[in-house]
Write a structure and sequence with these properties.
Helices cover 41% and strands 9% of the residues. The chain contains 16 helices and 7 strands. It has a 5-stranded parallel sheet with strand order 2-5-6-1-7, sandwiched between helices. The two termini are 17 Å apart.
Amino acid sequence: MLNFKKLYMPFIKKNQVVYDGKTTRGLYIGKVEAEGETLQGQSLTEYFEDYLEIGNAISEDKFLIVGRKGVGKSAYVKYLCDHSSFENEMFCNVVKSNNIYLHKIIQSIPPEIENKYAITYEWIILTEFVKLLLSNPDLKYADGYDALMKFEEKNSGIVNVDKWMSVASTETASLDVHFYELMKWLPIAFSKQIQNSQSKAPFYKIIPSLRDVVVKMLGYDLNKEINYIVLFDDLDVDFKLSNDQQKKELMDLIRIARDYNTKYFPNQNIKVILMLRDDIAMQLDGIASDKSKIFGSYEHKLQWYQTGIGVSEEYCLLRRFINKRIEIGLKKIGIDTDGRDPWSLLVVNDDPEYYYLEPASNYQKQNHP
């Protein structure tokens, strides 16, 4: 329990109505979950600082952001989304596992087709980049934009994987994709076999063609300074550590993300990022022979705790993080820290022994007459 000070005010009695000075009443320093900031009308762009250097890691080709639950993975996702909402230099989409009818998509693929999960994840990644390209107003008059827009409109239920369930219940099991406009614009991307299929085919058959289309448009000079990011978050939802099949499916996603980041999108401004819980990452050992190599090359571990000699408490990451939140919160209720340490201003005593085994009734009597 922390004893919060009432700043810049003399002692007041419990029932006193008129206050002389400012108090910390109404002070807001954040929600437990980053998603809750939206409910408070807050934007992480206002006070987010990348203390864990996730941005630097991503620019160095790391795409597996790994950390324990609550370390800040979803906070970074929300920060990027909030940032992309205000600027046309970044376009970001988030794929949450609980919003994807993954198994319904898998069921639409014939049993003789191998690597069903890899195929499905690749389709999801490609269609997310289609939506990102269409959301950039500067590309509105670019070559191929109209064809891509018509493709998305005609196949909206299949391109938007969160709507797949309703589409699958009303259309054929194969879920054919109409691609005439794209083929007319870029015929070289479509094989003769696909071109002879009356302008529609099952989604898994046109993945190579759609990939060529997306790669070509992302390579335009107009996109050289633009960041396009697809993030996978909440991959731990309904994930069972004892389920080897789920682990294999996750490795399929990791491999596809690696291929797109290194092979198809070598530019640093186009990324597929995965947010992973650390215990899930560790449980992938033994599932695939390439797991250690992939994680050794592309993993960035999130760690707030700093060990070793010479790290002063006021400069440690957690202290800097909470200080910024407190300082901004105080300013919003009209209190300026005047360069002083925000934590020390707000908290009377942060020594755990100060409250150790202190009866609640005594604490109330001593601090709240």
